[in-house]
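Teaching note: in complex prediction, the entire set of molecules is handled at once rather than each chain in isolation. The prompt given to students was simply: 'Predict the structure of this complex.' The entities are:
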Amino acid sequence: MKEFGYSLSPSSRVDLDKVDKSKQNRLFALEPGFKKCMSCGSCSATCSAGNYTDVSLRRAISYIQNGQDQLAVNMLRNCMLCGKCLIICPRGINTRNLIRNILNVYGEKQI
Amino acid sequence: MNINGKKKIWSEYQKEIPEDHYFYVRSCIRQNFFPASEKLFLEIVRERLSLDFFETEHHTTCGGIAYHSDTIPQETVMTIVARQFALMTEAGYKNYVASCITSFGLYTEILDTWHHFPELESKIRDYLWKTTKREFQKPEYLAHASDVVYKLRNKIASQAKYKLVNKDTGEPLKVVEHIGCHYSKMFPSKGVGGAEYPYVLTGMIEAWGGEIVDYPERRHCCGFGFRQYLVQANRGYSISNTHKKFESMAPFKPDMIITNCPGCPYFLDRWQYVIKEMEGKTYGENGEGIPVFTYEEVAGLVLGYDPWYLGMQMHQTAVEPLLDKIGIKYNKEEKYLL
Ligand code: SF4
Ligand code: SF4
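The expected output is the structure of the full assembly:
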């Protein structure tokens, strides 16, 4: 390859037509609250783990919506399941159950 | 569907375009990269359509590239533009047409800024008088050259020698259009179709027999982005943008790309070569690239001009696959002779 002095970054484009919807549907069935999220970010703001690691439930939810599930799984591995986000969520989403099921549906290990 | 409602909505995306009596200004970049486009524009409007388009040798750069690269202050660029308006006033014209969309965007932005801050306009008038002893009227009408070609598209079609049709299959050619960010993303009401429904080039393509490809990244930047290209270390941003567009349009198998802006044909054309070198990937048929054209070049092709007279030997991505598809006659031996 010729050396140009700069390089090509991979595209961040998401092609929703290529996303496997079956896992998403399983997740909706296990935690219907998933669809109620309005991306307010209250969960991320209150998250203690988020102070020390990159955990952000808001971001994890949008990763799942965009089909970038492995990014969500890697991030949520640092969640302590303390449930602070459950208390603060204005949409009343059972966030602990959601996090557990994201990891169960998309991750290799069951928790 | 309520067709009247739809028509009403669509009418908001139209703009009135005078047909005649324009003061024409060229683009710094286009004269170098696509040298025949502006010459051809003037030839078509003056000789084929007998219209009045005036240009003067005293016109300079509008300063747009420097302005968008953050290297000159806004008041400097305004004074340069005020001088261009003075040239128009001295020549007795009221309609101003720019070949470059960055100039078009800049003029629009300056006129709008002066509308909201009249004291700034007075200051610029003062600067212009002190530096050049010139005064100016603001244009009554500001157009981009593609608006004029859009307006004249059916007249051009009536004189066409070729159509944008595959001569073997009889099918319309699949065309990707790119209107460029500065045409209507800054001031959507100033562009035909606004920013959401880009129609200025689509109208030409439909009138000349082709079919538009509506692909996901259609409205994405071509990759120029000024600072992203002008600083070498940043060029990865520029080519990554262009790459994203090509990846998105590739499944639709476009036959050609038509562009509006000085930067867009350059980057969509040249980056295809660099992507090939970096990734070994090409986006056209048979390992070729997708030929990229300015709208004047496409008008020239349908009117039957010789491709080499149109400067197509200056393109990085070979245009011959498209010429062959349409059945345009050209002499291979003469490609680099003009
Ligand atoms: S349950 Fe997890 S995501 Fe929610 S606040 Fe606790 S550590 Fe953060
Ligand atoms: S607090 Fe609830 S609604 Fe807000 S982003 Fe988190 S999960 Fe979504």
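Point out the following to students. The interface with chain A takes residues 216-217, 232-237, 239-240, 243-244, 247-248, 274-275, 277-279 of chain B (CB under 8 Å). Chain B has two domains: 17-145, 161-328.
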